[in-house]
Design a protein that fits this description.
Elements: E1 39-45, H1 49-65, E2 75-78, H2 81-89, H3 94-102, H4 124-138, H5 142-158, H6 164-174, E3 185-192, E4 198-201, H7 209-216, E5 226-228, E6 231-235, E7 250-256, H8 273-282, E8 286-290, H9 294-300, H10 310-332
Parallel strand pairs: 1-2, 1-7, 2-3, 7-8
Antiparallel strand pairs: 3-4, 3-6, 5-6
Helix pairs in contact: 1-2, 1-3, 1-10, 2-7, 4-5, 6-7, 9-10
């Protein structure tokens, strides 16, 4: 799950008509009811904080430069930081996105150096992780975990001054090359904070793209539950880590997972990527995954929310994407 916005690009800003509450009071419709039962190629983009977002863009740019364009997938699924990547790659070229990351002004490191030179999460980030771990440990199952996460997030939000919503939306909007949904099928995951029910947005859901991404990236602790109309939403990673199961019925599914398919949840909950891959293959899909290699993990360090890791993570992802392109060519094409 992600706990930060993803990419510090600044393409656009929100307009008055885009602000929350302008046209968001209509019922929200879960896009899973409209997803095609079958298709050819699906691209799944998981969360992973600022570093994970940069790494995914780097991988996609590396694949592209090596002749493999995964941005033309028939279905793109974005979760948490991956939802930002999904919105970005459907409205800007991989080269443009990569260049924006590697040319950004250097950022100060967050956290002290840990073993191997990695940074250790400190302050709010570490506190949020600890609170989430306690909730996971106390929950009976995934549905109970989502309800508890939502309740805890709403409780914290009630004690805030309410200014976080506007700030988060502005931050997300600044990271998107376009604030319009693409014509192709793109799914953005979230969880209803009040009920714990998973929600999947698409361009027919009556929700602006900025709001869908802001909801999917709102972890509920450092970032408050995101309001759309009368509803509140938290991070899409609480639905299921990568949410690759939403690609069921697609012939070829490529999953980019900055956390390497790992999960903090009990295995019997089936949240982990391995369970999702088994389900997809049981329904006839061919599935390939890209996990960070050693160079990429070294670039992440110990704090994936550290903005200073973005350029090295993007560069490492780029080299990894170029190296994997040949292996994936027959699978994807």
């Amino acid at each position: 799950m992600n706990t930060t916005p993803s990419s510090p690009l600044h393409f656009t800003s929100a307009t008055a008509s885009d602000r929350p509450g302008s046209d968001k009071d209509q019922p929200q419709i879960d896009a899973t009811r409209r997803v095609r039962a079958a298709g050819e190629r699906a691209l799944v983009l998981h969360g992973g904080g600022s570093a994970g977002n940069a790494w995914e863009i780097g991988v996609i740019a590396g694949l592209f430069d090596a002749g493999l364009d995964v941005t033309e997938a028939d279905l793109i699924i974005g979760t948490s930081a991956g939802s930002t990547v999904a919105a970005q790659i459907t409205s800007a070229t991989p080269a443009e996105l990569l260049a924006a990351i590697v040319s950004a002004a250097p950022q100060p490191r967050s956290g002290p150096a840990g073993p191997g030179g990695g940074r250790v999460p400190i302050g709010p980030a570490a506190d949020h992780m600890e609170r989430a771990s306690r909730i996971i440990g106390a929950a009976e199952d995934a549905a109970d975990m989502r309800r508890r996460m939502g309740a805890a997030a709403l409780e914290m939000d009630a004690a805030s001054d309410g200014s976080g919503q506007a700030r988060w939306r502005a931050a997300v909007a600044a990271r998107l090359p376009s604030q319009h949904w693409p014509e192709r099928t793109m799914l953005i995951t979230a969880v209803d904070a009040r009920t714990g029910e998973p929600v999947v947005f698409d361009r027919h859901s009556g929700v602006d793209l900025v709001d869908a991404v802001a909801a999917s990236t709102a972890n509920g602790f450092g970032v408050p539950p995101y309001r759309i109309g009368d509803n509140r939403y938290i991070d899409g990673g609480y639905r299921r880590n990568e949410n690759a199961d939403l690609a069921a019925g697609y012939e070829r599914v490529l999953v980019l997972s900055p956390f390497g398919g790992r999960s903090r949840h009990p295995q019997e909950w089936g949240m982990q990527l391995a369970a999702q891959v088994d389900e997809l293959r049981a329904r006839g899909s061919s599935v390939e995954t890209i996990f960070p290699d050693k160079n990429s993990r070294d670039a992440f360090g110990g704090n994936m929310m550290d903005l200073s890791t973005r350029p090295p993570a993007a560069r490492a992802g780029y080299h990894q994407g170029r190296a994997r392109a040949g292996q994936l060519a027959d699978f994807w094409c």
